[in-house]
Amino acid sequence: MSNDTSKKPDLLAFATVKTKSGRTMYNKIGAAWNVAKGGISIDLFATPVDGQIVLFPPKDAPQESGEE
């Protein structure tokens, strides 16, 4: 399946890392687009070590590598 990557993504994909202080850092690892029949197509350029991916709408996305 291929995406129309000229369209802005509907969601941004982040891997999370907990710091020693207990805060969460977000590292952008890809993007996602809504597709037909309610599906979501995800393009990743990295895979999180723990397997957890968090998706945010671009307007609500955290700063890359920023802490929450």
Structure description:
By secondary structure, the chain is mainly beta. The protein contains no helices and four strands. It has a four-stranded antiparallel beta sheet, with no helix packed on it. A hairpin with a 5-residue loop joins strand 2 and strand 3. The radius of gyration is 13 Å and the shape is elongated. It starts with 10 loop residues before the first strand and ends in a 12-residue tail after the last strand.
Overall pLDDT score: 87
The tally of helices reads 0
Share of residues in strands: 35-45%
Question: What does the main sheet amount to?
Answer: 4 strands, antiparallel
| Assembly of the depicted chains | single chain
Distance between the ends: 34 Å
Order of helices and strands: EEEE
Number of strands: 4
With strands numbered from the N-terminus, the spatial order across the biggest sheet is 3-2-1-4
> How much helical structure, as a percent, in the residues?
under 10%
CA radius of gyration:
13 Å
Uncertain residue ranges: none
SS content category: mainly beta
Shape: elongated
Write a brief caption for the model.
With 68 residues, this protein is mainly beta. It is built from no helices and 4 strands.
Furnish the topology, listing elements before pairings:
Blueprint: E1 11-18, E2 24-34, E3 40-44, E4 54-56
Antiparallel strand pairs: 1-2, 1-4, 2-3
